[in-house]
Amino acid sequence: MTTDTYETVRTFESLGVADPLVKELADQGITTPFPIQALTIEDGLAGRDVCGKAKTGSGKTLAFGLPLLQRTADLLEVSDDTRTRGRPARPSALVLLPTRELALQVHDVLVPLAKAVDMRVAAVYGGADIDRQIARLRKGVEVVIATPGRLIDLGDRGELSVADVEVLVLDEADRMADMGFMPQVEWVLRRLERPHQTLLF
Q1: Which three-class secondary structure state does DSSP give residue 115?
Q2: The dihedral of CA 177, 183, 188, 190: what is its sign?
Q3: What is the pLDDT along the chain (201 residues), one digit of tens a residue?
Q4: Nearest CA-CA partner of 58 in 30, 37, 32
Q5: Fewer C-beta neighbours within 10 Å, C or N terminus of the chain?
Q6: DSSP per position, 152-190
Q7: 6 DSSP 8-state letter
Q8: Rounded CA separation 91/192 (Å)
Q9: Whose CA is closest to 11, among 24, 27, 22, 20?
Q10: What distance in Å separates the CA atoms of residue 126 and residue 41, rounded to the nearest whole number?
C-alpha cells in the first residue's frame, strides 16, 4: 500500500494529538490528517523512531512537528529538577534540514502550534545575522530548527548545545545526504548526550 492511495478517515484526536494542538489546527482550518500524518503521528507520539517518506506538500511538517511538540512538552513536564523549560542555548528538540528556505517554512508552521503548548521555537540558518540568532537562543527556547552549518558554527562558539535534545528530526534527509551534509549530521549525533527519539523524513 503506498501513501498515494492511502485514504485517511482518522482525526487528529484519534491519533492522540493533545487538545491545545487540535484546537490550533482547527483554528487554521486543518481537521483531517493527510496520509503521511495518519501513518506516522501515533508512532511519533508513542516515542518510537519513525522513518517517513512522502512528496513535498504532503504534510510532512505536521507529521513530525506535532509529535515533536507534544513529546517535548510532555518530557519537560516530567523532567527531573536539573531541567528547566527553555534553558538558554540548550533546546530539548532539534529539527535539522538542508536549506534556509526549509528552515523558515518549518518555523512558520511550528510557531503557532508551539505557542499552543507554551513552547518557544527559534530558527538558525546561514545567510542571516548570527548575532540576532544568538540573542534569540540566549532568551531560551525549547525547539531549534537549524541548517547543519549554522548549527555547528553556533556550537563551536559555545552558543548552542545539543546535549539535552531528546527529540531529533532529520527533515529532507535524502537531500542533506545529496548536498554532502552527512559529516555535519554525524557531528550533531555524536553530541547528543541523552537517549533520544529520531524522526527521519
Answers
A1: helix
A2: positive
A3: 444 445 567 899 999 999 999 999 999 999 999 999 999 999 999 999 999 998 878 899 999 999 999 999 998 887 654 445 556 779 999 999 999 999 999 999 999 999 999 999 999 999 999 999 999 999 999 999 999 999 999 999 999 999 999 999 999 989 999 999 999 899 999 999 999 999 999
A4: 37
A5: N
A6: HHHHHTTS---TT--EEEETTHHHHHHTT-HHHHHHHHH
A7: -
A8: 11
A9: 22
A10: 30
Q: Quote the cell numbers at residue 163.
A: 546535549
Q: At what angle do helices 100-116 and 60-77 cross, to 10 degrees?
A: 50
The grid cell for 179 is: 548536498
How far, in whole angstroms, is CA 98 from its chain's centroid? 14
Pair type for strands 93-96 and 167-170: parallel
- Alpha helix stretches (DSSP H) within the chain: 19-27, 35-45, 60-77, 100-116, 130-138, 148-156, 173-178, 182-190
Q: Using CA atoms, how far apart are residues 79 and 135, in angstroms rounded to an integer?
A: 26
**Residue 90 near residue 72 (C-beta atoms within 8 A):** no
Residues in the chain: 201
